[in-house]
Model the fold of this input.
Amino acid sequence: MIKKQEVIPSMIKNQRLVQERRQQIVEGAVRLFIEKGFHKTTTREIARECGLSIGTMYEYIQSKEDVLYLVCHYIHSLLLEKLHSISSHHLTAKEMLASSLTQYFQIMDELRPYVVLIYQETKSLPSEQMKLVLAREEEITLFFEQMLVRGIEDGSFQIPPSSVRLTAHNIVVLGQMWAFRHWALRKMYTLKEYTEKQVSLLMIEIQGVRR
Amino acid sequence: MIKKQEVIPSMIKNQRLVQERRQQIVEGAVRLFIEKGFHKTTTREIARECGLSIGTMYEYIQSKEDVLYLVCHYIHSLLLEKLHSISSHHLTAKEMLASSLTQYFQIMDELRPYVVLIYQETKSLPSEQMKLVLAREEEITLFFEQMLVRGIEDGSFQIPPSSVRLTAHNIVVLGQMWAFRHWALRKMYTLKEYTEKQVSLLMIEIQGVRR
Amino acid sequence: MIKKQEVIPSMIKNQRLVQERRQQIVEGAVRLFIEKGFHKTTTREIARECGLSIGTMYEYIQSKEDVLYLVCHYIHSLLLEKLHSISSHHLTAKEMLASSLTQYFQIMDELRPYVVLIYQETKSLPSEQMKLVLAREEEITLFFEQMLVRGIEDGSFQIPPSSVRLTAHNIVVLGQMWAFRHWALRKMYTLKEYTEKQVSLLMIEIQGVRR
Amino acid sequence: MIKKQEVIPSMIKNQRLVQERRQQIVEGAVRLFIEKGFHKTTTREIARECGLSIGTMYEYIQSKEDVLYLVCHYIHSLLLEKLHSISSHHLTAKEMLASSLTQYFQIMDELRPYVVLIYQETKSLPSEQMKLVLAREEEITLFFEQMLVRGIEDGSFQIPPSSVRLTAHNIVVLGQMWAFRHWALRKMYTLKEYTEKQVSLLMIEIQGVRR
DNA sequence: AATGAATGAGCATTCATTCAT
DNA sequence: CATGAATGAATGCTCATTCAT
Done:
């Protein structure tokens, strides 16, 4: 599911090296993109930041947009990895979901600048790569959707089938919201407070009261 | 509330002319920004699109970022105007809110590209202007917050005071979500379905079940 | 016939200025192209040579290839202009042709570097512009073709119709040859000697001996 | 006469290997140069096309210009080889020349893209190598010059000594013209027609009518 | 002898902004 | 007030060549 679908060609043959150098590039670029945005970051800056010469960097990518794609891919990988490592050895489906949500909100807090970056720069990708990134974004939704489906199947949740996906979207968005509205939310709530309130709301939605 | 807080100096004295020309600029720019984004739009294109010469345009702004600020300001004006014109001659606070939410979702649908633009380009503003734009964004939240407060005061809603603002944020975000996740949501829901489900969820939140 | 078919768009509105500046560009570029060839000349060098800033130069052209096109166009204009100003107030068609040939060879000598440039760089043009340049090249052939036709019509020349165009091509090429084989020819012949011999040969061809 | 005048140093000692690899390089490069020109072909492309690594290729050349020189040398070798293999077991000098001319025109047709390449890219050679290439070009002229001299000596041809070399040049150029003016000539003549007309013209020149 | 990763000077081109008219 | 020609620093990207392995 988190398959590394590398669509970007490289001039370099040694695949191990390609992986390694691209990791370097991504790590340098992500810092800069967060700090000043994709458009205001120059390829020269990226090269300097990741310790490669401009020429060498271009042996591993084809265009500046490729760097953005690699960065988005990397962020989604981080996110999906953390998501899938969520511990779920709980007894009831309800408990498991609540715990997952809490952990998800925690992740959103940790990756706050990354989440904002994805939100703001995905649109700068060439359409082909944008599609791939959006597909990965949907994977996150799918993660929660499947969790919900399991709860429905064992009778724990009462969400009508037509609402399952929307509920998953709501979960995802209310989590990301902590990142992209942080400028406002932080003035009133701590992560803990925010998490408690939103999880509580989502649990109501999931238990199907009045739906 | 929708006070035109003009922070942008102009070379031109005649204030009526300044208003008029800036409206021209905004209307041209917004089309282009939606189509190709702020960074990929050139000042020349903006001038051409709004029927001014590049020189004349610069008599009314100081930098390209000013245009972005004017555009953001304009979008928020549109939004706030529509929001404040929401009809509210209903009997109960509950009914009034439900109707407002429905109308708000309708507005989000109409202004979809504008909402997305605000989401993606606000970060390109100089920090001073970004603050002003975010303040206007909070005004939208405030609109719903006040509506909730009225409902609480007359006993219709049971939201703990500490959650009022968050609920307002939730309303705003679940509305904007129809715009910025439209690429995924449109595959499953019509605006009507989306509105019904989300309004229903928000009404539960507001009526304070298990909170 | 020497119609200035300007196909190259410019950012500048004032057409007189466009003409003037392009003339500047062409005059600078032609010197450099002759000296070092099209590919080894940089746009910065062209700008410097013609006294424009690089930015200003690009207001009058769209690409480096455009400069090459303008240069080719200019050279053909020079050539065609000189060709059409060939005096031809002679009595017989035969005399007129001989004189024209002599003057044509004289022109080829004067424009030697230009002729070589056209020969070597036309292929670097985008195909659309190459076609236009080749069409102008054919105009030169046409010039002699028409002269031959007139001589045939009044009975002075005995060239079969199917050979008229080839004869015109031969005239043109034997003239250009003085330019592009000059490195070898100059070792043995002066322009005068070369002209006499080739004109004499061409006159035989035209008088149709054994054809 | 077709002596391989190797002026290009190599890192490799084994001369047989040097010959072999350079042949590989030339065969790859000539295809690319014809297709897209010398300047628009990259060394990487040449290496790929000839099946060598870029590093290996550079063991056998010193610069990209060296490849161009090798290519020019190769083309001249092809040309001179074909030229010298022209069958000449005819009786009279006149017949022999006519046959040679016909076969030469045939060769020019076969090698059309090569001839054009030489015409357009020789100027890109460093002057030292350009001289060598031009010397080989003169060898072609010399081939015909010698044929003419033999005809003069046995009384078959009546060309004044001062015109022999020019006549040889004319032969060479009228042959090459079929290649470099093919874009125009092909519209009116087949190779056969072209050959007949030009050979006929050249035979007049050689038989010295009115000279 | 072969390889291919690394280099960075250099290139064509863009574009926000200015300012003389 | 309006115009649009002029500017040049800055940008993304290329590619011939080298050299450690």
About this structure: Chains A and C do not touch (no CB pair under 8 Å). Residues 1-5 of chain A have pLDDT under 50 and may be disordered. Residues 6 and 70 of chain A are 9 Å apart (CA to CA).
